[in-house]
């Protein structure tokens, strides 16, 4: 999920973009200074060096260092890659920063709730995709599933090799530990809920 015009170098504001994905846009419109201490703490808990986390997440060491220092506002792809490498839910990195909004190349998400059921963690989002916009997201860690319920518009979503299509009242689910995407394929914006389940 990832879009906008600002670079991955500061806490500049972002906006939802139409058309092809702009992979350089920051994911957190309110800035990402609160993310760095969480990434550093989780990395340290796992006994992982900065270089090792950068390697596992396929993220540049300078980018990761800037993220930990609070000087870079990462793209959503970067956040997903770091969360997957650490084996945690996205909200383990971004919650508590005062802004429940997360932006991607096409998707604008508002975090509604995070809850746990036994060892599993769930994130519930309100999601909007502008008509004609689409994006591809990188894999989550193994076992993560996503569940979308459409309220308006026509959504194409799911694993990149087998996406599904749903209109108002429709529901899609997929295993999200492979590349997957979202698109508003009709003339209307898509309004939907997105539930992401992270296994324990």
Automatic annotation (TrEMBL):
Pfam annotation, one family: HTH_3
Annotated region (Disordered), positions in chain: 1-34
Keywords, sorted A to Z: DNA-binding
Protein name as catalogued: Helix-turn-helix domain-containing protein
Top-rank taxon, per record: Bacteria
Domain (HTH cro/C1-type) ranges: 39-93
InterPro entries assigned to the protein according to its UniProt record, in alphabetical order: Cro/C1-type_HTH, Lambda_DNA-bd_dom_sf, RmlC-like_jellyroll, RmlC_Cupin_sf, TransReg_Diox_bact_type
SMART domains: HTH_XRE (SM00530)
